[in-house]
Inverse folding.
């Protein structure tokens, strides 16, 4: 009887995972309403109306606009102060990127570095690709949990942020690890020169900003779509932060013309991936944070599938970063970060696009 019960439980888990993984998309610049602005450790989170769950939180946007690569189309400028305040509260590694001249990486973190109380779902193991996985259920009073995965990778010694975002945003790369992906596209690229006047230098140099669109395949469930504001920030200490939040409802006019039919919307409430170099030029720690709400789906089922998909992405990325293909591609690019070049088309042989979170 005991064996029968265990088999039934195992079958149930496999059924849920196989059904969910068919449509979940694992990231979001990419790519959006984020954590409450609370200055002390607490379990109380500010609430936001459920009717707005499919759209980005207005607090992450300003009333300013920048032009894009398409004439007549302008996109909103993010509120960098609010965005990075919230990112740093859930990502101690992001605080290192912003504040430390020589970041110590994951080894320098301790429990006191966390503002919120996290539940450890996968205990620290230095011999594993993903070192530790944590979560906070119903974070910011929203349905899905916010999850955090820490890892150490080996690979490129330059343009790490832009290269990492490729894994999420380039169709041919994403299809290698995301079986649910149907469309991933940067639909608008923001003007970085115009952005400079709205961003403080403490947030590094923005090498990419734009609007990304993601759509999942039709499977046992209907497709989901997202539209996010995404960006990549590079810092003098060698660190990078990839970020994304969902666009507001007022920005729905930006949906791509080639996707006229609206489907159930999913929401990246908050996303960040922080990359900090450690030990040598080819080793770096990564802290990946995501709160993703899959439209019309129970939050308690979302968390496990997101974690499994993130693991799959990291496994594939680890191999890709060590590959000769990527090494040869990066070898053809100038050494270091060209801070004078503000044209995103200069990056990665004019093939680079922005991160779109799951």
């Amino acid at each position: 009887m005991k064996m029968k019960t265990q088999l039934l439980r195992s079958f149930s888990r496999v059924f849920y995972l196989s059904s969910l993984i068919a449509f979940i998309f694992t990231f979001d610049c990419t790519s959006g309403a984020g954590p409450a602005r609370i200055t002390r450790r607490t379990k109380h989170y500010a609430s936001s109306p459920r009717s707005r769950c499919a759209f980005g939180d207005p607090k992450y946007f300003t009333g300013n606009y920048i032009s894009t690569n398409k004439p007549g189309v302008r996109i909103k400028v993010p509120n960098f102060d609010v965005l990075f305040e919230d990112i740093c509260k859930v990502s101690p590694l992001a605080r290192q990127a912003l504040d430390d001249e020589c970041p110590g990486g994951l080894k320098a973190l301790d429990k006191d570095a966390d503002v919120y109380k996290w539940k450890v779902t996968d205990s620290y193991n230095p011999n594993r690709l993903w070192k530790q996985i944590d979560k906070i259920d119903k974070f910011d009073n929203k349905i899905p949990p916010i999850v955090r995965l820490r890892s150490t990778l080996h690979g490129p010694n330059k343009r790490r942020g832009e290269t990492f975002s490729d894994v999420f945003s380039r169709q041919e790369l994403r299809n290698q690890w995301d079986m649910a992906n149907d469309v991933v596209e940067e639909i608008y690229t923001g003007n970085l020169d115009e952005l400079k006047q709205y961003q403080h230098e403490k947030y590094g140099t923005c090498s990419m900003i734009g609007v990304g669109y993601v759509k999942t395949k039709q499977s046992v469930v209907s497709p989901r779509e997202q539209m996010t504001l995404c960006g990549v920030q590079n810092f003098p200490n060698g660190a990078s932060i990839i970020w994304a939040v969902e666009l507001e409802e007022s920005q729905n006019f930006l949906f791509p013309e080639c996707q006229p039919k609206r489907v159930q919307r999913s929401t990246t409430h908050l996303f960040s991936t922080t990359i900090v170099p450690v030990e040598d030029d080819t080793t770096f720690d990564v802290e990946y944070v995501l709160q993703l709400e899959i439209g019309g789906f129970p939050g308690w089922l979302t968390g496990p599938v997101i974690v499994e998909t993130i693991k799959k992405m990291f496994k594939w990325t680890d191999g890709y970063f060590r590959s000769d293909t990527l090494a040869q591609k990066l070898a053809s690019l100038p050494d270091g970060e060209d801070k004078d070049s503000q044209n995103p088309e200069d990056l990665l042989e004019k093939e680079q696009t922005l991160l779109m979170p799951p």
Residues 167 and 173 are 6 Å apart (CA to CA).
